[in-house]
Write a structure and sequence with these properties.
- The complex is a heterodimer.
- Chain A is mainly α.
- Chain A contains 6 helices and no strands.
- The radius of gyration of chain A is 18 Å and the shape is elongated.
- Chain B is flat.
- The chains are: A mainly alpha, B mainly alpha.
- At the A-B interface, helix 3 and helix 6 of A face helix 1 of B.
């Protein structure tokens, strides 16, 4: 496919020593452990503040898009009075919803702060808001996974 | 009266915003060049809308 650029041909733009080869890893175990720890740290940063992981990797476009898409979804979801699931979910769906919402990192608490009147899912509007909030979390988790994979040189 | 920070969107408006935001995010995460990103974003946005409206019409007979 013409869209796929082999990783070995790309220029390095990272602030961290990210290897640029996708071939089997032949680096010493200590290097691999250090890179794994770095990848986990970047993934945690990407989860906590959407876009921060990509910003550490100097992928500015992706960082901005991650931040603003998650922010927009959270602001809209909270503005539509969607349900923000709490830790004390009474069933499996509520707990799953909590995991999805928490995926937005710091924006989970922003959503709680924005939604001063509480959720209102008695109308379709609130139900759409619930979906947008969950989408923001899942999208941010996907972005964090992408940052993790880039750091481990599995993706370009 | 609705507070300033509250939104009231129709189903179609919510679907269009969702499709646009997800298309842009996926385009930036999965493609590297500006041209391929734009192509991906436009295509996935169109497909989101067409499939969403298509599923809506496919369910229409069951609601009557």
């Amino acid at each position: 496919m013409p869209d796929e650029v082999p990783i070995a041909q790309t220029e390095t733009t990272s602030a961290f020593p990210v290897p640029q080869v996708a071939s089997p890893d032949t680096s010493p175990p200590s290097d691999r452990h250090r890179r794994d720890a770095l990848a986990l740290t970047i993934a945690a940063a990407a989860w906590f503040l959407p876009g921060l992981g990509h910003a550490f990797l100097k992928m500015w476009g992706r960082a901005l898009v991650c931040f603003f898409t998650v922010a927009l979804l959270v602001v809209l979801g909270a503005g539509m009075r969607g349900n923000i699931f709490s830790r004390n979910g009474e069933d499996a769906f509520a707990r799953l919803g909590y995991v999805a919402d928490l995926g937005a990192g710091i924006f989970y608490f922003v959503a709680q702060a924005l939604e001063t009147n509480g959720p209102d899912v008695s109308h379709a509007n609130g139900d759409y808001g619930t979906r947008l909030l969950a989408t923001a979390g899942v999208l941010n988790m996907l972005a964090a996974l992408h940052a993790y994979e880039v750091t481990r040189a599995r993706k370009a | 009266m609705m507070p300033a920070h509250e939104f009231k969107l129709s189903h179609f408006q919510a679907m269009v915003i969702f499709a646009l935001v997800i298309s842009v995010a996926f385009g930036f995460l999965s493609r590297r060049s500006a041209y391929h990103r734009a192509k991906y974003i436009v295509w996935s946005f169109i497909l989101f809308i067409v499939i969403g409206v298509g599923i809506g019409w496919a369910m229409y007979p069951f609601s009557h």
